[in-house]
Design goal:
Elements: E1 3-8, H1 15-31, E2 37-43, E3 47-50, E4 56-59, E5 61-62, E6 71-74, H2 80-83, H3 87-99, E7 102-106, H4 109-115, E8 123-124, H5 131-137, E9 142-143, E10 149-151, E11 155-158, H6 163-176, H7 178-187
Parallel strand pairs: 1-2, 1-6, 2-5, 6-7, 7-11, 8-9
Antiparallel strand pairs: 3-4, 10-11
C-alpha cells in the first residue's frame, strides 16, 4: 500500500503554497509509482475551496475521509490568520503532530505550527514579512530568515510561496533519493534563474 502525502487546502490558501508542491509531488508520484507514494489534497469539509488570489480548487478529500497520512503539508496564505486563534484547528494540528510522522509547512503555515506549540525550541522559517510574527508566536523558536527551507527531522518549514517548490523537491530527495529529485526537477523544468 502506498504511503500518503496530504496537502491541506482551506479558504484563502495561497495558491502557489499548495499548488507548487502539488506539481512537484504529483509529477513524482505519477511518473515513478514504484517509489510507493501518493499525494492527495484535503480540506476540513471537502469540496471547493476559494484561494487567496481568486482561484477555486476542489479538494480530493475531507478530514473525515482522507487516508492516514505519512506526510502533511500545511500551506500558508491569508487564510492562516484566523487559524492562529482557532482553537479547533490548532487542536487538529496538534493531533496531526501525534499521528503523522512528517509535518511540513510553506510560508505562513509555520505560523499555525507556532501557534499550536509545535515550534518550541526548534529552527524554523516563514515568509520574510512574517518572520517577526513567527518569533512573537513562539519566542523560543530559532528563526532562520535566510533559509529557503529548514529541515528539523520530523518537521520541515519553508519560506514564502515559491520556496514550497524547493521544499517539495527536498521531500522527494528525503523520501526517494537525490537522483530521483533531480529527475523530477528536470521533468518539471525547474531551473530558477530570475530574469530580474
Amino acid at each position: 500500500m502506498a504511503k500518503q502525502i496530504g496537502i491541506l487546502l482551506f479558504p484563502d490558501v495561497e495558491e502557489l503554497d499548495a499548488l507548487g508542491p502539488w506539481e512537484v509531488l504529483s509529477f513524482w508520484t505519477r511518473t515513478f509509482p514504484a517509489d510507493g507514494y501518493e499525494v492527495r489534497t484535503f480540506s476540513p469539509d471537502g469540496g471547493e475551496i476559494a484561494c487567496a488570489k481568486g482561484l477555486t480548487v476542489r479538494s480530493g478529500h475531507s478530514f473525515a475521509d482522507v487516508p492516514e497520512l505519512d506526510v502533511l503539508l500545511h500551506p500558508g496564505g491569508q487564510g492562516t490568520r484566523p487559524m492562529l486563534r482557532d482553537a479547533e484547528h490548532l487542536a487538529w494540528v496538534r493531533e496531526q503532530r501525534a499521528a503523522v510522522p512528517l509535518l511540513t509547512s510553506v510560508c505562513t503555515g509555520s505560523l499555525v505550527f507556532a501557534a499550536a506549540g509545535l515550534l518550541a525550541g526548534r529552527p524554523a522559517t516563514t515568509h520574510w514579512r512574517s518572520l517577526e510574527l513567527l518569533a512573537e508566536l513562539e519566542p523560543t523558536a530559532r528563526v532562520r530568515p535566510d533559509d529557503r527551507f529548514v529541515d528539523d527531522g520530523d518537521l520541515v518549514t519553508a519560506a514564502g510561496i515559491s520556496a514550497g517548490i524547493d521544499l517539495a523537491l527536498h521531500l522527494v530527495s528525503r523520501l526517494a533519493g537525490v537522483e530521483r529529485a533531480r529527475e523530477v526537477r528536470r521533468g518539471i523544468q525547474y531551473d530558477p534563474r530570475p530574469p530580474i
